Amino acid sequence: MTKWLPRTYLTLVYLLLYVPIVVLVVFSFNESRTGYAWGGLSLRWYESLFNNRAMVTAMWNSLWLALSAATVSTVIGALTALALHRYRFRGKKLLNGMLFVVMMSPEIVLAISLLALFLLVGLQLGYVSLLLAHVTFCLPFVVITVMARLSGFDESLPEAARDLGASDFTMTRTVLIPVIMPALLAGWLLGFTLSLDDVVVSTFVSGPSYEILPLRIYSMVRVGLKPEVNALGTLLLVFSLVMLMLSQWILIRSKR
Amino acid sequence: MKQTLLSLSNLSKQFGGKTVLDGLDLEIYDGEFITLLGPSGCGKTTLLRLMAGFEHPDEGTITLAGENLTHTAPENRPLNTVFQHYALFPHMSVFDNVAYGLKMEKRPKDEIRQRVDEALAMVQLQDFARRKPHQLSGGQQQRVAIARAVVKRPRLLLLDEPLSALDYKLRRTMQVELKRLQRELGITFVFVTHDQEEALSMSDRVVVLKDGLVQQLGTPREVYERPANLFTARFVGETNFFPGTVESVQDGSITVDVFGLKRTLRRPDFPVQAEQSLHVLLRPEDIRVLDPDDENGVAGKIVERNYKGSTLDSVIHLADGTEVLASEFFDEDDPAFDYRLGEPVKVSWVDGWEWLLPEEASQRSEEELPADA
């Protein structure tokens, strides 16, 4: 009695979490055209997915965008976190608070204001506007991730490096960055995933010249659910699993 | 023979309006083991950080072997630091930690390997070169930190409470090991601690600091037996303070009334005159506990007794409420030697073992001193 209740509960929770994903993966190999009837094993939706030029382009666009947005926001975010951690300056609290404002404010507000800004300065909507927008909403997450690592950082480590003859720059390169590397990687991955699956902001600031995957899927689904989407979903799932394992592997290695 | 290596003159430092060092002067001799001793907040760590170059003084100069270092960056100073919590680089192996300083000097690979191996052998860690710091015990990490600091053969080694994180037994072992290293390497050690026992047992000279000022500078024996003021007397070891009144002053001696007991004592260095009040300082081991019917001594009764293995430590209350600490060695003739609580006794001391200090003008009553960590 006491044992089966928690077990059932746990099973239900996990079913709720994973059944939709399992369904998606299974139906991506479904021969049948309709989404809810099993017609035998087939790779035809994968084939049709890769023959869909617009889809493949959107996929590469999305990957490239996520890669560049994550990288840019990690660089800026790490430097911001370092500045907030190491120096005292006027407006430090304000800067810190403003990061949270960006994180907490509704995405739609961010989207509208970014669009308004881009129109105001006459920026053509496309890769650049998307990149700027994505860096904006990724930045706070990177800063917070890196700050968390820095707050547990032993302040005497940089001093020890200086004491042993390292210049400030050498110390940063050989001690500071390696020590906060796990946080940098975590921040980068967070930025990457945030950018990859963003819909709201991207809807507003993307242009016809640069179509990205979430928007492409969204427009596909509107005209009816094609099994191709299942195949795409499965591929994305595999991709994120690989990324996750990679990051875990790097984290474990860095601890050794 | 005693050559000054590091000379600090008129050092002042404030943090946010609070004076931490106040015009401090100090000469550190080549090859000595000098300890900066004081309660937390006395300025000892700031002083060390000024020497290392992590902080810069508001005023004053730091000179090492004739070279002005006051504004030199830490990486350009020929001295190294052992940090309180070791500050080992967590992502590097023990070998790379120790090699770091030599790599910064761009030494050839062979030389680095050889010198790191030597340094690790010196602290008996040659088999641990490939480990990461978190795979070592506290004492081993401490030894890596020391090897890393001495591998560059600095003129001066700064040690910031390096033993405070170790347990009592390990601390003892490391104290002996540090002394051995210092003898073998011939490097000048500047050691910071708040543990007076550690300071006394390790140092050639002790600097007692309080409120950014040197209270006393001397050998451990001088600091313990002839404290310069009440602060040093209270901070270093346990002390009984008996109030005394000068009855008369002779050529080389004075007669003092202590609890109605007239004693003729050696005349102190400071000026004395009749009627003056002064403090008679007696360490617990200077106290003699006598039979209650003894003619000499002040009457009191035992209120506490602590068996300490080699000594019997007791607390005696005198008639006026003064508390006296006494520490007596066990006698071979009387192995059962002990006191009953409430037992009446008399308290006295051996002539010449007392130390006299004048009343201090701005005397703060019983300052809170941190307990030994």
TrEMBL record, chain A:
InterPro entries: Bact_Polyamine_Transport, MetI-like, MetI-like_sf. This is Spermidine/putrescine transport system permease protein PotC. One of its GO terms (cellular component) is plasma membrane. Keywords: Cell inner membrane, Cell membrane, Membrane, Transmembrane, Transmembrane helix, Transport. The chain crosses the membrane at residues 12-29, 63-85, 97-121, 127-148, 175-196, 229-252. Required for the activity of the bacterial periplasmic transport system of putrescine and spermidine. Its main location: membrane.
UniProtKB/TrEMBL annotation, chain B:
Its EC number is 7.6.2.11. Keywords: ATP-binding, Cell membrane, Membrane, Nucleotide-binding, Translocase, Transport. One of its GO terms (cellular component) is ATP-binding cassette (ABC) transporter complex. Residues 6-236 form the ABC transporter domain. The keyword Cell cycle does not apply. It is an enzyme of class 7 (translocase). SUPFAM superfamilies: MOP-like (SSF50331), P-loop containing nucleoside triphosphate hydrolases (SSF52540). One of its GO terms (molecular function) is ABC-type putrescine transporter activity. InterPro entries: AAA+_ATPase, ABC_SmlMolc_Importer, ABC_transporter-like_ATP-bd, ABC_transporter-like_CS, Mo/tungstate-bd_C_term_dom, P-loop_NTPase, PotA-like, PotA_ATP-bd. It holds the Pfam family ABC_tran. It catalyses: ATP + H2O + polyamine-[polyamine-binding protein]Side 1 = ADP + phosphate + polyamineSide 2 + [polyamine-binding protein]Side 1. PROSITE patterns: ABC_TRANSPORTER_1 (PS00211), ABC_TRANSPORTER_2 (PS50893). The complex is composed of two ATP-binding proteins (PotA), two transmembrane proteins (PotB and PotC) and a solute-binding protein (PotD). PANTHER family: SPERMIDINE/PUTRESCINE IMPORT ATP-BINDING PROTEIN POTA (PTHR42781), SPERMIDINE_PUTRESCINE IMPORT ATP-BINDING PROTEIN POTA (PTHR42781:SF4). Part of the ABC transporter complex PotABCD involved in spermidine/putrescine import. Responsible for energy coupling to the transport system. Belongs to the ABC transporter superfamily. Spermidine/putrescine importer (TC 3.A.1.11.1) family. This is Spermidine/putrescine import ATP-binding protein PotA. The gene is potA.
